[in-house]
Write a structure and sequence with these properties.
With about 290 residues, this protein is of the alpha/beta class. The protein contains 8 helices and 12 strands. The chain has a 12-stranded mixed sheet. Strand 5, helix 6 and strand 6 form a beta-alpha-beta unit.
Length: about 290
């Protein structure tokens, strides 16, 4: 069991499959051209499985695949299949544009939970944010996943002056469609041109939504980062991830493995541990 100095049990591992992405969202990757890690610097499929197995022996029972955009890796299907054989709950975070290509794989391995990033319900604004004309394909893929019985969460990064007025539209979407919308406070990190005046807080979000909807809070797990709500009678729910206004560090159970095999205990951690180099040098047993 992995317990840190604050007595937090870490049983949830997020694995980044790549630092690359096929979108260029202005708050994440604002430039069109980047130098990404060379293939040999990335964890290979068998190395991801080897490291994941070690973490499972240490108590990890949930693994989420992230990126960049995880589904642009050519061997993403192989990785999903191998990790699905581990005794963990396997989940995925994606921009949704390639979900149709992997529907059969998801069904084969029983992957039932997917987070899809979608910051607007307007096609023109989607192109402004992502610099890609893929809105309708993403929406079609969301519908496809719902038809396949997948539990779909929609991740919405809320930015003041850009999409904050769309919150009621997203809540309206949950009326007849079983999507679970998660409004995320805009977070700072190197290169995303963050400024505090773009933050639209948890309290502001609830105030905006309450103008048109009556909602009630839902019980959530102790480690859940989202504060969940439902409008009575709606098929879906909505929640707020209050990263900036009400941090939830004290109950965090997550660890992050970067695409090049470095372990971080926090998205904003300044220190990381190079597990991939240790694995390749034989300093970590493949059969822990």
């Amino acid at each position: 069991m992995l317990i840190d100095q604050y007595n937090r049990v870490h049983n949830y591992l997020r694995i980044s499959l790549t630092d690359n992405c096929n979108f260029r969202c202005f708050y994440c990757m604002p430039e069109e051209d980047y130098t990404f890690s060379p293939k040999e610097a990335l964890m290979q499929a068998e190395e991801i499985e080897q490291l994941a197995r070690i973490f499972v022996t240490l108590g990890v029972n949930k693994i989420r695949l992230t990126g960049g955009e995880p589904l642009i890796r050519k061997d993403a299907g192989t990785i999903i299949r191998s990790l699905s054989r581990l005794p963990v709950k396997l989940a995925l975070t994606t921009n949704g544009v390639r979900l149709n290509d992997f529907a059969a794989v998801f069904q084969e391995v029983g992957l039932h939970s997917i987070n899809i990033s979608l910051d607007t319900l307007q096609a023109e604004k989607f192109q402004l944010i992502t610099r890609r004309n893929s809105f309708h394909r993403v929406m079609d893929n969301i519908q496809l996943m719902l038809e396949k019985g997948v539990y779909v969460k929609i991740n919405v990064v809320v930015m003041a002056g850009l999409n904050d007025h769309e919150l009621p539209d997203f809540v309206a979407w949950t009326k007849d469609v079983p999507v679970h919308v998660r409004f995320i406070e805009f977070m700072p990190f190197a290169g995303n041109r963050w400024t505090s005046n773009k933050v639209f807080t948890w309290q502001q979000m609830l105030e905006r939504i309450s103008a048109g909807y009556a909602f009630v809070p839902l019980k959530t797990d102790a480690h859940e980062t989202a504060k969940a709500y439902v409008v009575p009678g709606h098929k879906g729910t909505f929640s707020v991830i209050s990263t900036m206004s009400a941090p939830f560090c004290s109950t965090c159970n997550r660890m992050r493995l970067t695409a090049d095999g470095k372990l971080k205990n926090c998205l904003f951690a300044q220190h990381e541990t190079d597990l991939l180099s240790a694995l390749r040098k034989g300093k970590i047993s493949h059969h822990w």
